[in-house]
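Reviewers of the previous submission asked for a worked example of the structure-prediction workflow described in the proposal, so we include one complete record here. The input consisted solely of the amino acid sequence. No template or homolog information was supplied to the procedure at any stage.
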Amino acid sequence: MSGHSKWATIHRKKGLIDAARGKVFQKIAKEIYIAARGTNGDIDSNPSLRAVVEKAKSSNMPKDNIQKAIDKAVGSGNAENYEAIRYEGYATGGVAIMIDCLTDNKNRAAMMVRSTLTKHGGNLGTNGSVSYMFKRRGVFEVENKYDFDTVMDIAITNDALDVIDNEDSYTIYTEPDNFLAVKDALEQGGINEFVTSEITFVPDNTIPLDDEKMEKLMGLIDALEDLDDVQDVFHNAEV
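From that input alone, the workflow returned the following structure tokens.
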């Protein structure tokens, strides 16, 4: 009986993990669709598409899924009308939060984001109310199995902004326009496995939270990311 119970628990957890992974792939596929729409689908000649594909790869999205999203965009006669919208506001503890959406119904997206924020103790702000606290950056996280001096030398030589030793990993920051060039240089130097590889928003400063407030913040982020229209959530809490 206990063996069956253990199997059921593992099976249930796997189902939850697979569902979460599927949700991530669905959101990235939407980004790929937007980047490839109106093009011939060639990754090498489309920096925006290549950057999203790199993000997909770092999330372990299967190659077939990536290609299907590209093919759908290239072969679509009636393009899906997605609109990019950013919402800004505050979460518990005064944490600044930005929510990026891709939606075919902005009224639905606004209603769902607002209600989710309110339910979890946050509030919606005006455009520009918190976005000035973030900078768009290329971010790589590399396992520490590579030599730090080698990683730093390659990154800095190719105009990366910063390289940080986190003890168990290294984080490399770049300007968005230099993201792909730094990645190519790292790979040519033998640094070809990335925990994270994406262009994202990085806060200028972070806010420390106690355990209770951090738990509330994570609950809010999970709820927001579970919304179909939400693509990314950025915050300036110290993690």
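Confidence is low (pLDDT under 50) at residues 1-17. We consider this example representative of the routine output the project will generate in years two and three.
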